[in-house]
Amino acid sequence: MKINFKAFDIYIDIEKKAKINMDISTQIANVLFENGTGIVSHTLAHKIYDGKDLEFNDDELKFITAIIDNYTSPRMIDSFSDYINTNNTKL
Q1: I need a surface site. Which of 14, 29, 61, 76 has the fewest CB within 10 A?
Q2: Rounded to two decimals, what is the model's pTM?
Q3: Could you please report the per-residue DSSP string of 29-89?
Q4: For the chain, domain boundaries
Q5: pLDDT tens digits for 18-69?
Q6: Cross-strand pairs, 54
């Protein structure tokens, strides 16, 4: 699945009626770098920080989702979850 963290739609309120397109690559890379463990976190943090239209396999998506679910804001969790559910039927 492709994800462009440099141009990602984030909800701006709890109603989810409006979104803002943001570069969240540094934020997500830092969450992985600071809170993840092992080489997988290290590799994904650099991949997200350095890349644009990135391809992720199911295992990488599950790992990123777990980190986002535990270490980011509710609006980020909902935005990422809805993006995955809308664009990927495998998870």
Answers
A1: 14
A2: 0.89
A3: HHHHHHH--HHHHHHHHHHHHH-SEEE--HHHHHHHHHHHHHHS-HHHHHHHHHHHHHH-S
A4: 2-87
A5: 999 999 999 999 999 999 999 999 999 999 999 888 999 999 999 999 999 9
A6: 3
